[in-house]
């Protein structure tokens, strides 16, 4: 094995182990669950390490950390549902989707990413409006954070820092993968209390804020690690 390839493998193993450990800490303790007045009762940030793993080291490491998140969620006393087809299986794709989205967009043109930014911003603002019908404060908070984030991303695009937009998109995609697949599985498995209407409500009131938070955290963490958005010489995009 070439020294460079061996270094990459060692780095991937270390990254998978470290982010899996962080995932376990978040998912098995109240640290990873934020109590919110929504039908689900809490919002999670424990899926974010899986997104970061996929972006940093690719789909395989993303899959490993996603599996850690699924197993930890299944074992967590804070998660009442104990169906592996709902809690574990759908979550395997979190890091994988995040990796694919980041790899697919990071070399895109600023024009393409500007259009994507406009579409995503419009979608989230519409979702914020719907959220505000039930939870006014939450809808306003999501709208304000989204507008501020969109402005910052637009500034980065003008600086040709397209990787920042790719990070934000990967964060949103990974988070929505978790929300959509878990809720869909819950409906299909006929989990008590989770109807299509309830799942849709949870997806809006909980899934959208989680996606926004994921995008922010991913941009900050991965951007710092890879020096994205700093225009420093030698940055690794």
Description:
It is built from nine helices and two strands; from the N terminus they run αββαααααααα. It is an all-alpha fold and 237 residues long. It has a single domain, classed as Arp2/3 complex 21 kDa subunit ARPC3 (Orthogonal Bundle), CATH 1.10.1760. Strands 1-2 form a two-stranded antiparallel ribbon. The longest helix has 31 residues. The two termini are 25 Å apart.
Key structural traits:
two-stranded antiparallel ribbon; globular; single chain; Arp2/3 complex 21 kDa subunit ARPC3; mainly alpha; 237 residues
What topology emerges from the helices and strands here?
Layout lengths: L2 H26 L4 E3 L6 E3 L3 H10 L1 H17 L8 H4 L6 H12 L4 H25 L1 H23 L3 H27 L7 H31 L11
Antiparallel strand pairs: 1-2
């Amino acid at each position: 094995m070439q020294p460079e390839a061996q270094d990459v493998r060692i780095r991937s193993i270390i990254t998978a182990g470290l982010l899996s450990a962080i995932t376990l800490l978040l998912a098995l303790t109240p640290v990873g669950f934020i109590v919110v007045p929504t039908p689900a009762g809490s919002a999670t940030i424990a899926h974010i390490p899986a997104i970061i793993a996929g972006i940093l080291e690719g789909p395989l490491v993303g899959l490993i950390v996603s599996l850690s998140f699924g197993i930890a969620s299944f074992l967590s006393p804070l998660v009442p549902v104990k169906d592996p087809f709902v809690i574990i299986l759908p979550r395997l794709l979190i890091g994988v989707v995040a990796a694919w989205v980041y790899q697919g967009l990071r070399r895109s043109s600023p024009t393409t990413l500007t259009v994507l930014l406009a579409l995503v911003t419009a979608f989230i603002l519409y979702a914020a409006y719907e959220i505000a019908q039930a939870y006014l404060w939450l809808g306003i908070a999501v709208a304000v954070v989204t507008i501020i984030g969109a402005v910052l991303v637009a500034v980065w695009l003008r600086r040709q820092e397209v990787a920042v937009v790719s990070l934000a998109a990967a964060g949103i995609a990974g988070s929505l993968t978790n929300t959509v697949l878990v809720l869909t599985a819950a409906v299909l498995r006929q989990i008590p209390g989770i109807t299509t209407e309830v799942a849709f409500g949870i997806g809006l009131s909980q899934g959208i804020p989680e996606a926004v938070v994921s995008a922010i955290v991913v941009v900050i963490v991965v951007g710092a690690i890879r020096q994205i958005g700093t225009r420093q010489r030698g940055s690794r995009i």
